[in-house]
Design goal:
Chain A: This is BHLH domain-containing protein. The complex is a heterodimer of chains A (about 170) and B (about 90). Chain A is mainly α and about 170 residues long. Chain A is about 75% helix and about 0% strand. Chain A has helices at about 5-40, 50-60, 70-85, 85-105, 115-140, 145-150, 150-155. Chain B is elongated and about 60 Å long. Chain B is built from four helices and no strands. The chains are: A mainly alpha (about 170), B mainly alpha (about 90). Chains A and B meet through α1, α4 and α5 of A and α1, α3 and α4 of B.
């Protein structure tokens, strides 16, 4: 076989395998995230954001869309600012805009009154922090360095020593 | 009151927003911002904070995915993961 073609072939094969592996990894990552969100929703003790998140996660979409300010939001702000004459009015416009953004970030936020939205936001932030903590601990565990911290008794009994070298 | 698009926020509500939001944000940013932070600034920080937490969840999900692919199914680590998923 021509060396040129042979090299291209190997590259193509490896490239394809790498791409496939990437797809597998990404898909697993998405499922991990969905599992984490479901766990988060279940631990919310019936909170509105929890119920909304639970409903949303069950309709798993292949690609999670980024929540960004759309052009319509900017358009609305420009229209509102034309009405706002004083400094206070301007501040109020920005607040309205930020509240709208918060509604998109907190699950179920679109259906809440402003006061309720803040309550839910506080609870949601606390839950997110806890979720991040758990996932960090899991990552630590899987990278082999955190076992002792998580299971001191078993570590003492010598049950956690890895059999093969990393 | 539904508080959806169209309803305006009163001054009182804004003041309450400010104190509630300051309590929400992490210690570090609370100290950095003066006590006279505007509601809009606090709301902006809250939104960024939530977005950064979301990004962390995404990054960790990806990382865990990679770590799990190299995991030995018979290890104690795998058993811990399995017990969490039950």
């Amino acid at each position: 076989m021509d060396t040129h073609v042979a090299i291209l072939d190997v590259d193509g094969q490896e490239g394809m395998e790498r791409r496939q592996q990437q797809l597998v990894l990404r898909e697993r990552g998405r499922r991990i995230k969905a599992a984490a969100e479901l766990g988060l929703a279940r631990s919310s003790r019936g909170r509105q954001w929890g119920r909304a998140l639970g409903r949303r996660t069950l309709v798993v979409s292949p690609e999670d869309g980024e929540v960004t300010s759309s052009s319509t939001t900017v358009g609305k702000r420009q229209a509102a600012q034309k009405k706002a004459t004083s400094l206070e009015d301007e501040e109020e416009v920005v607040v309205e805009e930020k509240v709208a953004l918060l509604r998109q970030l907190v699950p179920g936020g679109e259906d809440m009154a402003v006061e309720g939205l803040l309550e839910e936001t506080a609870d949601y932030i606390e839950a997110l922090k806890a979720q991040v903590g758990v996932m960090r601990a899991l990552a630590c565990l899987l990278s082999g360095s955190g076992l002792d911290a998580l299971m001191p008794e078993k570590a003492a009994a010598g049950l956690l020593t890895p059999e093969k070298p990393h | 009151m539904s508080g959806r698009r169209g309803s305006r926020i009163s001054d009182d509500e804004i003041n309450e927003l400010i104190s509630k939001l300051q309590a929400l944000l992490p210690e570090s940013s609370r100290r950095r911002s003066a006590s006279r932070s505007s509601a809009s600034k606090l709301l902006k920080e809250t939104c960024s904070y939530i977005k950064s937490l979301h990004r962390e969840v995404d990054d960790l999900s990806e990382r865990l995915s990679g770590l799990m692919s190299t995991m030995d199914n018979d290890s104690p680590q795998a058993e811990i993961i399995r017990s969490l998923l039950r």
